[in-house]
Amino acid sequence: MGEINTFNVLWSVYKPDSYFDIEWHRSAGAGVLAINLVHDFDLMRYLNGEIESVQAMTSHKNRHLEVEDSISILVRFQNGALGTLLASDAAVSPWGWDQNTEENKMSFAASPNEDCYFISGSEGALSIPNLEYWNYPKDQIKSWSTPLIKNKIEPNKDQDVYICQLTHFIDVINGIAEPLSSPQDAIRNIQLLECIQLAAKERRTVYIEELQCLDQSA
User: Fold this and answer.
1) What is the torsion angle, in degrees rounded to the nearest 10, for the CA atoms of residue 170, residue 171, residue 177 and residue 182?
2) Once rounded to an integer, what is the mean pLDDT over residues 61-69?
3) d(Cα 218, Cα 215) in Å, to the nearest integer?
4) What is the crossing angle of helices 183-202 and 208-217, to 10°?
5) What is the distance between the alpha carbons of residues 92 and 76, in angstroms, rounded to a whole number?
6) What's the pLDDT tens digit per position in 102-119?
7) Does domain 4-217 bear CATH number 3.30.360.10?
8) 142 contacts: CB under 8 Å, gap ≥ 6
């Protein structure tokens, strides 16, 4: 893919009205950002490195609850790449990690032929989870007037990801495997979540180091 320049994420579902019968589901902090998108920017960090700063806007226009129903986030990675996350739990769509990967069929209707991550680089572009890779033929000049070719990378769907996660967790407990994620990773995600909330509230760019400095001084 060369040098990654842009990273776009879509997550959009319609949560039924009954979901909000639970009181805390209607409260600030229990929305699409903290419950759902936190997993996506965790994966963004894993695939493209740490995030330097964020901007964000939230909307409450559909349900008029304390909790947001839609959010738009702009991120700048430390490597200079830009990313967007656009999410709503009040919008009908087939796009989202849970629907497109078919990892959680008990909660989400599957849309396996759709993609929700779109990564573009200086040599090509990749859509996830269907792993379609677009680039120029090697004997052609890189130009917007040159037709792209599409290559299909077959994903491994033979294993249940939740079983794999639990198996790995048991292996870590038994001392036969090292954790694939660390407590520091989890802390970083919470810091990022808090920065996004602050960016939306104060309508400004928030740098991740702002919260890290506060944590260290405390």
Assistant:
1) 0
2) 90
3) 5
4) 110
5) 28
6) 887 777 888 989 999 999
7) yes
8) 136
